Amino acid sequence: MDFKTEFKQLTVQPEEIEVKSFEMITEELGAHSFTQEQYPVVQRVIHASADFELGRSLVFHPRAIEAGIAAIRGGKRIVADVQMVQVGVSKPRIHKFGGDVDVYISDPDVMAEAKRLNTTRAIVSMRKAVKEADGAIYAIGNAPTALLELIRLVKEGEARPGLIIGMPVGFVSAAESKDELRKLDIPFITNIGRKGGSTIVVAAINALSIMAAAEA
Length: 216
Hints:
Number of helices: 11
Largest sheet: 6 strands, mixed
Strand order of the largest sheet: 1-6-5-4-2-3
Radius of gyration: 18 Å
Shape: globular
Mean pLDDT: 93
Number of strands: 6
């Protein structure tokens, strides 16, 4: 079958596609209130989602970018709520500084404890993580219960994250968990509303790691 189309590829080179995408994002986003340091995160979130509303809804603690870069360059761990975040993060830039990406939700002891307590594995995984990953970047894109538990642990002095990237997607407690995160006086990156997800959190981490590597 001879299939013909009038559509022509702008380019097939990966680097050129990314550059062109970023140019289109900047043009379409237009005027905004994000700082020069925050904008690369916004840009990559929009690039990953093609969702300008989501990009505009991002909220940054004033020290978020500085804290995230410092954590990566200091070799701090990245704690993910689910394997999708762990898989998506670009590892070479993280490994360059001695860091890694951990996820605890499927650990046998976490699963057993969650069953014993009749609670979610996401909650128990945060309780384990804070004991093993002081100063880590917590990357939560899937489980609002994980974010709410981490917030509780921060308030009670049991957790000392270097940065919380909290953008869980969903209908039950997703928006509310982000509302609670914005009340904390520690570095965070979040967004307003139900949107979010693992790919969005990955985009934010990858933006931070690119900035960290550029400053090295």
